[in-house]
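Re: the 269-residue chain
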Amino acid sequence: MPKLQLSPGVELNYRVDDFTDPWRKPGAVLLIHGNNESGLAWYGWVPHLARHYKVVRPDMRGFGDSTPMPRDFPWTLDVVIDDYLRLMDALGIERFHLVGAKIGGVIGRAFAARHPDRVLTLTVVGSPPPVRADRDTLEKRVKEVETLGIEHWARRSMGSRLGSAFPKEGVEWWIRYMGRTAVSTEAGFAGSINFSDITQDVANIRCPMLVLTTLESGLASVDETKAWQQQVPHSELKVLPGDSFHVAATDPDSCAQATLEFIKRHENA
């Protein structure tokens, strides 16, 4: 897979999927995955999107096949966003549609607010409110992954993540998949980015935004999601049945189709 050098010894792994007609000049969609994931998390989305758009799937700095980050790396939202901007610049893509799941939706909202000249539309999938209500768990979360490992944390929390209807084989796959993250990366990331406050960013989003969640998401109620979604002009909320909060993983077909329809409706706006 291709890699972009971010700094000496630090590389960003990425994939580009493009199954559009060869005579067309398609637009681009940047997919930002969640914590302890990689671009592989979008496996169910690619068949829907890549026939119509060039799909860019990076492994976030420190995750997947990108270079692991040391425990004391100074994480900020701007550092992560700048990685993605540099990747899109390297690919020659000036403006693009942005989709973020879970913490990727937090990063995506900040991205759209801080770089409105680059983001055409924003889709936020199964993502927490602008301020996490469980910020007091930050130290416990870091201690858990450092002492017991990421796979332990993933197994403990996977029930609410994937909900009650997801197949057992799928649950086990996700546990092992997320457990491959370097502990040094996750300890630093969970102690910083994972508990970011993007309240001001949400107020500054101007591009069309689609928010996808489930009826019984453990991250936030529908009313709590509406509270921040409705702050953004030209925004829409789609609520799917179910109790998973990682709806991008549990309902990829429904989410991807809704996103595709939303993008096509707004791409010429």
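DSSP finds eleven helices and eight strands in the chain.
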